[in-house]
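Final report, closing paragraph on structural work. Over the funding period we assembled a curated collection of sequence-structure pairs, and we close with a single example.
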Amino acid sequence: VLRLTERVVPDGSFIQVFFRARVFVDGTRFNVRALDRRPTGDGDEEAYQTARAADIDPRTPGGTLSVRLSSRREPLIDDVVARAPILTPNGDGRNDFFVLSYNLLRLTQPAPVFFEIYDLSGRLLRRGYAGQDQGGSYLRLWDGFSLDGHRVQPGIYIYRIILEADAKKTVRQGLLHVVY
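Its predicted structure, as stored:
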């Protein structure tokens, strides 16, 4: 919501609004609707006006109602953050889960995503998530248990986020520590 303190007079001038937001899909379209409220003798009169792509001057820098991501070289996975890289799965309510957040970008359709935990020898210990995701922010958890339902031993482990999109596999990984 943008509120202007002075009326904009339709004299050929225009208003340009810049905003900052996280966009996950290239070409995301935005809807624009303006409300003009004026006091009259009988109360307020309201008039809405919408904007369409044809209303935008294409010669204006950024003159579209859609947002283009800045580069095709941008990663498909970004902002991978291990929020609790030390896991103590002992049931005391503190650090009982490994928490990983990340963003998926530029996906035009849902794609296969896997969240997996490996030991240092490369053996898969647990697949914490396997599904089809679209662009957006995600949060994954691991409780410190292996595929066979046993708590893992103290040590260093590898987490991986795997995305299969655009005819390639994108992997982001890092280390986490399990202590008791």
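Residues 9 and 140 are 51 Å apart (CA to CA). The longest strand covers residues 155-165. We thank the funder for supporting this effort.
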